[in-house]
């Protein structure tokens, strides 16, 4: 018996040592950083266009994947950076998770908002893509630490940490930050400590000078309807396969159908918004907020409650915030025979611009900061929205 113990003891000790070393190896392994979590979804993008004299012009940006089928969000500046090129000659290429001088994946334009400086692309890849997780910028307080990562033209892959310094500047769709975006990093994701994306890098208005800005992620909502439609199509496809699969009973199908119905309900209340100051053929100016539903049918936008704050812009670059006007409600008007596309006419709003321009000689021009809440035909109120309208 004594002999058996003497032979078993060393084996147990050796096994114990192996466990200890394994535990130490796991403990010593570096934890995945928030930047590592984002990197597989980072996209380096290059656009090339041809001018009238056949000169080739290129523009670069960073973007990030927002769906498993290759939808990528970036900035519209990728296209404006090409200058005056023939639109038919524009070619967009991308790399996912890495960057190179000559990206290999073909990309096409899905949707854009020039006013918000946002662009949604489809990158054609043979492999599934990993979309980022989204947070809510409204939950991020001023002076909170945030991060970003992207592909700099000069320095390649870069990561940054900074903070939000101003959420309430003159451009309501831009927040000021200390994140030092470099050339090529516009369009990069801005994310919180848990790796959830809360914004898109806008950069500086003038290269090498002035504040750095990012666009809160909620302003990309109108473009993101495409990702929700894609998710709905995938769910419908899965239901079709489950209907013919013997292992899936009524309970599983009921859960799946309920999920699809929830997606449809959300999409029915999803629409794009655009504000315009425009002049009719007779020369009369008007201020309008246009909408277009993502899916046809009820509920429709019925009423809008608006608060307007005039903003005076002086020639020296400073601004003057004038008093916010009392709230006013307007009723929707169809743009076509269908209520799926329509607008709200902010009657007499143009006179606000004229009044403040005449009353303040030092003001070069006046823009309108518009805060509004939409009530749908079923009584639902959509979350409040903001936009800045320029004459």
Key structural traits:
single chain, 391 residues, alpha+beta, Thrombin, subunit H, Immunoglobulin-like, 6-stranded antiparallel beta barrel, 6-stranded antiparallel barrel, 6 helices, 21 strands, 39% strand, Serine protease
Task: Tell me about this structure.
The structure is a single chain. The chain is an alpha+beta fold. It folds into three domains: 28-219, Beta Barrel (Thrombin, subunit H); 221-268; 271-389, Sandwich (Immunoglobulin-like), CATH 2.60.40. The protein is built from six helices and 21 strands. It has a six-stranded antiparallel β-barrel. Strands 7-8-9-12-11-10 form a six-stranded antiparallel β-barrel. Strands 15, 16, 17, 20 and 21 form a five-stranded antiparallel beta sheet that branches. A hairpin with a 4-residue loop joins β5 and β6 (118-123). α4 packs antiparallel against α5. It is globular. This is Serine protease. InterPro entries: Peptidase_S1_PA (IPR009003). Keywords: Signal. It comes from Mesorhizobium helmanticense.
Helix and strand run: HHEEEHEEEEEEEEEHHEEEEEEEHEE
Mean pLDDT: 80
Distance between the termini: 97 Å
Q: Could you give a short account of the major beta sheet?
A: 6 strands, antiparallel, barrel
How would the global form be characterised? globular
Count of strand segments: 21
Main-sheet strand order equals: 1-2-3-6-5-4
Output the number of helix runs. Answer: 6
Q: By helix and strand content, what is the structural category?
A: alpha+beta
- What Rg do the Cα atoms give? 26 Å
| Helix content estimate | 10-25%
**Assembly category:** single chain
CATH top level assignment of the largest domain: Mainly Beta
Q: Strand fraction band?
A: 35-45%
Can you tell me the CATH architecture of the largest domain? Beta Barrel
Structurally, the number of domains stands at 3
Report low-confidence residues grouped into runs of 5 or more.
Answer: 1-13
CATH level-3 fold name of the largest domain: Thrombin, subunit H
């Amino acid at each position: 018996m004594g002999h058996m113990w003497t032979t078993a003891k060393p084996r147990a000790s050796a096994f114990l040592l192996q466990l200890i070393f394994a535990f130490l190896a796991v403990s010593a392994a570096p934890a995945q950083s928030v930047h590592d979590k984002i990197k597989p979804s980072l996209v380096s993008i290059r656009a090339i266009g041809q001018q009238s004299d056949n000169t080739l012009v290129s523009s670069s940006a960073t973007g990030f994947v927002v769906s498993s089928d290759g939808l990528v969000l970036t900035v519209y500046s990728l296209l404006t950076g090409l200058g005056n090129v023939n639109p038919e000659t524009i070619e967009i290429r991308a790399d996912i998770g890495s960057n190179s001088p000559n990206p290999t994946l073909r990309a096409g334009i899905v949707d854009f908002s020039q006013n918000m400086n946002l662009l949604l692309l489809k990158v054609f890849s043979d492999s599934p893509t990993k979309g980022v997780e989204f947070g809510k910028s409204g939950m991020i307080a001023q002076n909170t630490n945030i991060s970003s990562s992207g592909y700099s033209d000069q320095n390649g892959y870069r990561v940054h940490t900074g903070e939000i310094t101003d959420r309430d500047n003159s451009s309501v769709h831009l927040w000021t930050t200390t994140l030092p975006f470099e050339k090529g990093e516009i369009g990069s994701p801005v994310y919180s400590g848990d790796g959830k994306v809360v914004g898109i890098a806008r950069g500086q208005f003038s290269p090498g000078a002035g504040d750095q800005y990012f666009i809160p992620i909620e302003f990309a909502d109108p473009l993101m309807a495409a990702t929700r439609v894609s998710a709905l199509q995938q769910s419908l496809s899965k239901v079709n396969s489950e209907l013919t699969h013997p292992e899936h009973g009524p309970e599983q199908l009921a859960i799946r159908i309920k999920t699809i119905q929830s997606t449809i309900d959300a999409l029915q209340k999803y629409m794009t918004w655009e504000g315009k100051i425009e002049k009719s053929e007779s020369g009369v100016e008007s201020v309008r907020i246009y909408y277009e539903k993502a899916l046809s049918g009820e509920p429709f936008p019925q009423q809008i409650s608006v608060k307007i704050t005039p903003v005076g812009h002086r020639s020296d670059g400073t601004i003057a915030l004038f008093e916010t006007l009392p709230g006013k409600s307007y009723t929707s008007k169809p743009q076509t025979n269908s209520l799926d596309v329509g607008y709200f006419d902010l009657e007499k709003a143009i006179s606000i611009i004229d009044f403040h321009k005449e009353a303040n000689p030092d003001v070069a021009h006046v823009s309108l900061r518009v805060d509004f809440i939409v009530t749908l035909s079923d009584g639902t109120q959509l979350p409040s929205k903001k936009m800045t309208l320029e004459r």
